[in-house]
Design a protein that fits this description.
Blueprint: H1 11-22, H2 26-37, H3 44-53
Protein name: Acetyl-CoA carboxyl transferase
Organism: Sphaerotilus montanus
Length: 66
Amino acid sequence: MPLFWKHYKSETTQFIESLKQQDPKLEQRQREGRALLWDREQNRSAQGEFNTATVPQQPYVYQTKA
């Protein structure tokens, strides 16, 4: 490694690190927000019923049936 090599941090990374320093609970709140929308248990029986209830789509959607 050369002597003049300096560890590079982008402006975005510096901004995020400064946000985390200003608000230490930021990352915890982000995780809680993610859990509200994405980290949910799936109901497999309801998903199976949903999959069987779908109607197959015709190859060209705007074609009228002859």
